[in-house]
Amino acid sequence: MKKASYIILYILIILIFAPTNCHSFWIWTPESNKWVNPKYSVKETPAEQLDFSLGFYEEKSYEEAIKELKKLIKHYPRAREAPEAQYYIAKCYEDQDKLFTAFKDYQTVIDKYPFSERSAEIIKKQFDLGIKLLEGDGGKGFLKKTFADDSYDIVEVFRTVIKNAPYGEYAAQAQYKIGQYLSEKKLYQEARDEFEKVINDYPDSEWAKASKYQIAMSDALRSTEAQYDQKVTEAAVEGLKDFMSDYPEAALSDKAKEEIKGLREKEAENAFLVAEFYEKQKNYKAAKIYYQGIIDDYKGSTWSSKALERIREVSKKQL
Question: Is the pLDDT reported for residue 72 higher than 50?
Answer without folding.
Answer: yes
